[in-house]
């Protein structure tokens, strides 16, 4: 790998370019060159790579299966929304060398704070060493500072350079550059905090560290045991570890680690009650999952399903249509989006369904008659357990009789049309006309219902006509697969309470949902306490933009479907909410949203039972090594500011921001305090946004991090920033102090 390999980079069946790939000496960076020009075309870090797939495991490589054997093909999959890299090696041996080598590098390089720092230093040295002679003169250092987002006084930069040049050679080599980098990145605000609790200013004894954890980090229970663990985990000196003391370097490593993050590390794993019925959870849900671009001409791809499932999505959408030779295809019907075989979709779902977690997930099947739909395409999908006879006999089930999330582990639920009710499926037709409509095409379905009611054939009944029509348009075997997520039209909350079942689900456009929230907020919350509701984007969002999911979560809507392929604030909120609880895609709703008789209305915070408003105080202290704005001019340095946004019920919606710091994206210092009143903290999401201030135009995005209020750890914490597409950008972070009072 380090000698370099000539391989074909493939983008389509007709686009195959030869590129020279080489693993750099740092064993962390891969460059690839154009064979024709010899110039470096692009580079990526091993830390950017999520996995490597062998063989024809992409649509592009599948299209070339007859031309190239699978043993020579592999796909590099990156984190986030970055496109995959499909490669064809010149031989089986070369392909295996790269596949095995990449797997070893990925597994061998967990991003510990120490490794991040080491890798970061090495990367900057390589970028600054323009003539590649293994040393840097002062001119190269000045250029590097601009690249690092630092606009430093020349005299001060020269002083740091000379202090690090121990050999007095006029250049920095190896360890000398490390000294320069450490002087440059010295954290005065952290050192000052360290010295507040250190009697000698050089170390924290075990008792001093316990004092810090109890007084500032509010770690009351087991503080001494935690202190011991932190010393063992983060103290770099073996001697200090043996003496049970923490140095300033160890203290900084702790604060920069997951243990020092604003996100409660205990909430990263499953921490919520998973024995509730489905309707008691917010469920990570996608819209038109197969699309990775726009809604009209965009590409349909199995990658949409893979990416969504890996992000913890638990509700996927499959639009099935008749294809050539009787094979169904998946695409956005009546548009120019590309098509993928349905067989490939279910094969992909079978492979990735439970890789992230064991919780159940649902397929959203849009209505489309499929000749021969009773074939084997559906047979692989396991049905959930049938309810007992005593449950079926009841006219209306209660949530306690609905299967729990725990009981549905490893199950796949189909949401779609159904002939008759579940009772009809098991005991024969009942007295009511079956309903197989879905609000996604509610206008057409409603018109058909009106026609059926107005024109009844001689001797026929409304029930028999509807049942006959349903049987003509929907395969019985497909209908039988729909158990707990039968699609029904919504005719009002009172009608639903009287006649609907917990096993049924209604879909609303974002506009319809907003009207219901505005006109009947409390009734909507009560409805969602016992039945599932799905919200989908407006048909006008042809660019695959998203609506804010927060207003839908405020009334307890469980399945709030978003376009996962589109980055932005809306997906930041989605990722922020579902980053907890093991990223399983399920988040338990607050108690007052699980009660069918609740008085809660998001437009009236006083309707929430419980304590009064909570005060959230955030001191934004500093930032570290913020990234440059994409496509910025060479030498440009950002002017960063921090905006804190509160997303929740209308009374809690707010945002405040700091002043901007001119020409310093490397270690800006704000020391500003922002304060918010939260009336319903259980529903609040906190979003930290860093922007590059521009007085003449819109500020540019730099980074963000979003989390639910319930996942915040108080005290001195780091906020580890994410890029626009949700991937980490280490070591970019904010240093803050969090104080919460009720």
UniProtKB/TrEMBL annotation:
InterPro entries in alphabetical order: C2_dom, C2_domain_sf, EF-hand-dom_pair, EF_Hand_1_Ca_BS, EF_hand_dom, PH-like_dom_sf, PH_domain, PI-PLC_fam
Localization: Cytoplasm; Endoplasmic reticulum; Membrane; Nucleus
Key words, A-Z: Calcium, Cytoplasm, Endoplasmic reticulum, Hydrolase, Lipid degradation, Lipid metabolism, Membrane, Metal-binding, Nucleus, Repeat, Transducer
Biased composition regions of type Acidic residues, renumbered to the chain: 425-446
Catalytic activity reported: a 1,2-diacyl-sn-glycero-3-phospho-(1D-myo-inositol-4,5-bisphosphate) + H2O = 1D-myo-inositol 1,4,5-trisphosphate + a 1,2-diacyl-sn-glycerol + H(+); a 1,2-diacyl-sn-glycero-3-phospho-(1D-myo-inositol) + H2O = 1D-myo-inositol 1-phosphate + a 1,2-diacyl-sn-glycerol + H(+)
The keyword Metal-binding is annotated on this UniProt entry: yes
Span list, region Disordered: 423-451
GO biological process terms on file: intracellular signal transduction; lipid catabolic process
Enzyme Commission designation: 3.1.4.11
Ranges for domain PI-PLC Y-box: 478-594
Annotated C2 domain residues: 594-723
Keyword set includes Hydrolase: yes
PROSITE patterns cross-referenced by the UniProt entry: C2, EF_HAND_1, EF_HAND_2, PH_DOMAIN, PIPLC_X_DOMAIN, PIPLC_Y_DOMAIN
Gene Ontology CC terms, in alphabetical order: endoplasmic reticulum; nucleus; plasma membrane
Chief site of localization: cytoplasm
Residue ranges of domain PH in the record: 1-107
Membrane-related topology note: Peripheral membrane protein
GO MF annotation terms: calcium ion binding; phosphatidylinositol-4,5-bisphosphate phospholipase C activity
Stretches assigned to the EF-hand domain: 116-151, 152-187
The protein's required cofactors: Ca(2+)
Protein name, entry field: Phosphoinositide phospholipase C
Organism of this sequence: Piaya cayana (Common squirrel cuckoo)
Primary gene name: Plcd4
């Amino acid at each position: 790998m380090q000698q370099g390999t000539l391989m074909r980079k493939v983008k389509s069946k007709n686009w195959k370019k030869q590129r020279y790939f080489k693993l750099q000496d740092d064993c962390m960076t891969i460059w690839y060159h154009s064979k024709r020009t010899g110039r470096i075309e692009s580079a990526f870090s091993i830390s950017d790579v999520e996995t490597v797939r062998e063989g024809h495991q992409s649509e592009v490589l599948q299209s070339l299966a007859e031309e190239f054997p699978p043993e020579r093909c592999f796909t590099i999959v990156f984190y986030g929304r970055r496109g995959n890299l499909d490669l064809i090696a010149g031989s089986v041996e070369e392909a295996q060398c790269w596949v095995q080598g990449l797997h070893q590098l990925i597994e061998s390089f967990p991003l510990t704070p120490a490794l991040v720092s080491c890798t970061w230093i090495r990367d900057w040295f390589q970028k600054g060493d323009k003539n590649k002679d293994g040393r840097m003169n002062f001119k190269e250092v000045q250029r590097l500072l601009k690249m690092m987002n630092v606009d430093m006084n020349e005299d001060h930069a020269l002083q740091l350079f000379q202090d690090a040049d121990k050999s007095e050679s006029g250049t920095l080599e190896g360890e000398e550059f490390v000294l320069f980098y450490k002087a440059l990145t010295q954290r005065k605000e952290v050192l000052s905090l360290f010295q507040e609790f250190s009697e000698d200013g050089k170390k924290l004894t075990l008792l001093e560290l316990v004092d810090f954890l109890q007084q500032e980090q509010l770690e009351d229970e087991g503080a001494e045991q935690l202190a011991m663990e932190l010393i063992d985990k983060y103290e770099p000196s073996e001697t200090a570890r043996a003496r049970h003391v923490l140095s300033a370097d160890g203290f900084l490593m702790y604060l920069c680690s997951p243990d020092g993050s604003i996100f409660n590390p205990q909430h990263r794993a499953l921490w919520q009650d998973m024995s509730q019925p489905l309707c008691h959870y917010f469920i990570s849900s996608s819209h038109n999952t197969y699309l990775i671009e726009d809604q009209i001409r965009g590409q349909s791809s199995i990658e949409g399903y893979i990416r969504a499932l890996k992000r913890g999505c638990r509700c996927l959408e499959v639009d099935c249509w008749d294809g050539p030779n009787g094979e169904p295809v998946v695409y956005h019907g009546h548009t120019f989006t590309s098509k993928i075989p349905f067989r490939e979709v279910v094969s992909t779902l079978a492979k990735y369904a439970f890789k992230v977690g064991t919780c159940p997930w649902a397929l959203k099947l849009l209505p489309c008659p499929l000749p021969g739909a009773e074939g084997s395409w559906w047979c692989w999908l396991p049905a959930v357990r049938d309810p007992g006879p005593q449950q079926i006999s009841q006219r209306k089930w209660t949530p306690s009789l609905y299967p729990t999330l725990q009981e549905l582990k490893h199950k796949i639920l189909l949401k779609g049309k159904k002939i008759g009710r579940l009772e009809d499926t098991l005991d024969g037709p009942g007295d009511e006309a079956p309903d197989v409509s879905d609000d996604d095409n509610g206008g057409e379905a409603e018109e058909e219902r009106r026609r059926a009611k107005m024109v009844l054939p001689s001797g026929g009944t409304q029930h028999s006509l509807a049942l006959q029509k349903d049987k003509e348009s929907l395969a019985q075997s497909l209908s039988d697969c729909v158990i707990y997520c039968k699609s029904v039209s919504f005719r009002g909350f009172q009608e639903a309470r009287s006649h609907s079942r917990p096993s049924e689900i209604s879909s609303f456009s974002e506009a319809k949902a907003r009207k219901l929230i505005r006109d009947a907020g409390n009734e909507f919350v009560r409805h969602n306490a016992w039945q599932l509701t799905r919200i989908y984007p407006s048909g006008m969002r042809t660019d695959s933009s998203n609506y804010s999911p927060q207003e839908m979560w405020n009334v307890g809507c469980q399945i709030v479907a978003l376009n996962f392929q589109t980055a932005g604030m809306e997906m930041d909120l989605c990722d922020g909410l579902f980053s907890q609880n093991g990223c399983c895609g399920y988040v338990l709703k607050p108690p007052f949203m699980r009660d069918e008789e609740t008085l809660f209305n998001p437009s009236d915070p006083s309707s929430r039972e419980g304590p009064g408003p909570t005060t959230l105080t955030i001191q934004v202290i500093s930032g570290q090594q913020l990234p440059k704005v994409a496509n910025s001019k060479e030498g440009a340095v950002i002017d960063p500011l921090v905006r804190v946004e509160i997303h929740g019920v209308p009374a809690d919606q707010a945002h405040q921001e700091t002043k901007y710091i001119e020409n310093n994206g490397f270690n800006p210092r704000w020391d500003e305090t922002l304060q918010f009143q939260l009336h319903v903290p259980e529903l609040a999401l906190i979003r930290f946004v860093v922007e590059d201030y521009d007085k003449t135009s819109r500020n540019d995005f730099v980074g963000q991090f979003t989390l639910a209020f319930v996942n915040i750890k108080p005290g001195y914490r780091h906020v580890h920033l994410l890029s626009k597409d949700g991937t980490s950008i280490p070591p970019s972070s904010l240093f803050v102090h969090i104080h919460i009072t009720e």
